[in-house]
Amino acid sequence: MKWKNEWKTLLAMVGVFLLSFFLPVNSTRFQNAIMESFHMLKEYAQLHVILCLLPALFIAGAISVFISQAAVIKYLGAKAKKVTA
In angstroms, what CA-CA distances link 5 with 1, 10, 12, 13? Predict the structure, then answer.
């Protein structure tokens, strides 16, 4: 074991252990914060799907109707010029 190379990793592991050891898991404030973060994540996922992902898929579908795959490969494929791509 070379201490010069591995002291940062050891320090990070000890830090994560100490952080997890002293987490105030029984605190009501901590539990409310964790639950609220999950509620925010759920709301973000729902809104992101409706407002961003659905329109992007509709736009991609419309583009695929009007532009052929060969044209896309010509300009964005492996043999395309880097300046053009």
Answer: 9, 10, 13, 14
Write down the pLDDT at residue 1: 67
Tokens of 64: 């695929």
Residue 34 has pLDDT above 90, yes or no: yes
Q: In whole angstroms, what is the distance from residue 79 CA to residue 75 CA?
A: 8
Spatial contact of 48 and 58, defined as CB atoms under 8 Å apart: no
For the chain, what is the HEC assignment? CCHHHHHHHHHHHHHHHHHHHCCCCCCHHHHHHHHHHHHHHHHHHHHHHHHHHHHHHHHHHHHHHHCCHHHHHHHHCCCCCCCCC
CA–CA distance, 2 with 54 (Å, rounded to integer): 52
Kindly report the pTM of this predicted structure: 0.53
